[in-house]
Design brief:
The protein is mainly α. It has helices spanning 9-19, 24-30, 36-51, 58-66, 76-87, 92-99, 103-112, 118-122. Helix 1 packs across helix 3 (36-51) and helix 6 crosses helix 7 (103-112).
Length: 127
Amino acid sequence: MPPPQRLSDKSVTVLRLIAEGRSYSQIVDAHPSITYRDIFLAAEEALQLGKGQPDPPSRITDIRRRHARAYEPWTKEEEHRLAEMHAAGLSVSDLARRLERQPSAIQARLLKLGLGSPDERKGGTER
């Protein structure tokens, strides 16, 4: 598969927002049509343009081998399950394993739901 001749419009938008200093969560929260996966695909697309390497989703594919739901949108049902299991005292590692997501995604979602502390995000993955 030959490298793209130019960046997609969505990738240009994502990279422009990053260049303006927006964090990934600010981008996703302010732009409903952009997901975390879109951010990483924009970076892969830019790298592919620069290096001519094929297979932009290779990093995401590798991560999904370990965390099947990585970069998928969260459903209300998943958020409810996360909140219940968190309240039951499960560790971030256990939550990640059960929800098939990365520990960092669990921590970020707990923060977004008001269930985690900034210390948990900076510290280890255990509660």
